Amino acid sequence: MNKGDLVSAIAEKAGFTLKDADEAYKAMVSSIAEALKEGEDVTLAGFGTFKVKTRAARTGINPQTKQKITIPASKVPTFKFGKSFKEMI
Fold first, then answer.
1. In terms of Cα–Cα distance, which of 87, 86, 82 is closest to 45?
2. How many CB atoms are located within 10 Å of the residue 50 CB?
3. Of the N and C termini of the chain, which has fewer Cβ atoms inside 10 Å?
4. CB within 8 A of 88, min separation 6: which ones?
5. Cα separation of 77 and 34, whole Å?
6. What is the pLDDT of residue 33?
């Protein structure tokens, strides 16, 4: 399933037009992204939790030159499915 399929399913199940379903999808994604940028976790009961994890700086190796490089610390978005969602699958 891709974005178009998901928007179509939302429109069909909620009785929305495709345009309204697409706007709802975009609003949900942007709201989650904004909350994660502010450092908040987003928990959707019965579905799962979006979080931001911090990766520590580490040493890596450039595969072409075999030279050691420093990979800087970074923030990575993660998602963990909830127990009830896992049980549905």
1. 82
2. 18
3. C
4. none
5. 12
6. 97
Residues 6 or more apart from 23 whose CB is under 8 A from it?
A: none
Residues 21, 88: Cα–Cα separation, whole Å: 24
Distances (CA, A) of 83 to 20, 36, 56: 30, 22, 29
Q: pLDDT per position in the chain (89 positions), as tens?
A: 999 999 999 999 999 999 999 999 999 999 999 999 999 999 999 999 999 999 999 999 999 999 999 999 999 999 999 999 999 98
pLDDT, position 52:
97
The CB density around residue 34, as the number of other CB atoms within 10 Å, is 11
pLDDT reported for residue 56: 96
- What DSSP element (H or E) covers 83? helix 83-88
